[in-house]
Amino acid sequence: MAAVDSFHLLYREISRSCSFYFETLAVVGALYTASRAVILLRDCCVLVRVHFLPRMIPSRKLTQIYGDWAVIYGASQPVAQAYAEELARQGLNIIFVTQDRADIGDFATHLSQSYGVETLLVHADVCWNQAAAKPVKEALRGKDVGFLVNCVDESGASPQILIEMPEQKLMDVVARNIATATLLTRVVLPGMVERSRGAVVNISIGACCRPLPGRVMLTASTGYLDHFSRALHLEYSGRGIFAQSLIPFKIASSKRQPPSSTEGWFAPTPEVYARHAISTLGVSNRTTGYWPHTLQNGLMRCIPEWIWVLGSRMFIS
């Protein structure tokens, strides 16, 4: 009985001496919970402001805000074609800068016939120099170019470690996704600055948010476009230029292609994605462009990087 009484006395003494620490931990826990609740509320408000309000509130036509012409680079990619079609639907004329006119000639004709807009095809060599830039400058002469859309080229993006990539393929990736997009921006930007309006949209992929083993060049080039867009916005937003980095996640096949079994809520068709992405113009300079992808991005940020990398390596192997 004495042993039991002494245990209770000892427990009460320990509880009395540790009560300060318990109260401190409770305050810390309450503050942490409150901070996470504030962050969650802020993210929800941003989600509504970027993805829902612009689609609910009528706005001026894109031609009135930015200009009558759009330059599209990377239109061999389905998402870039869908973006171009959405611009044409809203009355913008399109200049396609491409390395192979045969790839998008039929698509350009489709836009002209369907939406009554003008389309031009301009050949651009990936090995850019002053001679290569001349046809682009000639095509832009006298036109109110309000849009430039650069889309990352995902062709040949199957998992492959760096030392297994042929040197020529390595240089082609750099030329297509980094050099040409940067130099094309340099060509188009002076006219936008002169008119004090315009939009530069760089479409990369969600891989830029986290490194992916086996896709070093794709991750690096998309990361470059992402940071290039953000730096461009900081440098030229005060001059009326809106630079946007779009970082979509998985996108299903186009409606003009055979239907994909992966199409769904988190894998929209390029046409659905483009309609959502264009509504974020002027609202967010860095976004996934599609609100379910924004939820995916938020979830991905909560996963520790080592788990993400481990899962990617298991997928490759």
Helical residue percent? 55-70%
The helix/strand class is alpha/beta
Order of helices and strands: HHEHEHEHEHEHEHEHH
Number of strands: 7
Radius of gyration: 25 Å
Strand order of the largest sheet: 3-2-1-4-5-6-7
**Low-confidence residue ranges:** none
Number of helices: 10
Query: What's the end-to-end separation, in Å?
Result: 65 Å
**Binned strand content:** 5-15%
Shape estimate:
elongated
- Report the average pLDDT across residues: 84
* Main beta sheet strand tally, sense and closure: 7 strands, parallel
Description:
The model has no long low-confidence stretch (mean pLDDT 84). The chain is α/β, with parallel strands linked by helices. It has 10 helices and 7 strands. α3 crosses α8. A 7-stranded parallel β-sheet has the order 3-2-1-4-5-6-7, sandwiched between helices. The chain is elongated and about 95 Å long.
What order do the helices and strands come in, and which of them pair?
Elements (H helix, E strand, L loop, with lengths): L1 H55 L5 H4 L3 E5 L4 H12 L3 E6 L2 H15 L3 E5 L6 H11 L4 E7 L15 H29 L2 E6 L12 H21 L4 E6 L23 H9 L7 E2 L3 H12 L2 H12 L1
Helix pairs in contact: 3-4, 3-8, 6-7
Which properties best describe this structure?
alpha/beta, seven-stranded parallel β-sheet, 7 strands, 12% strand
Short description:
With 317 residues, the chain is an alpha/beta fold. It has ten helices and seven strands.
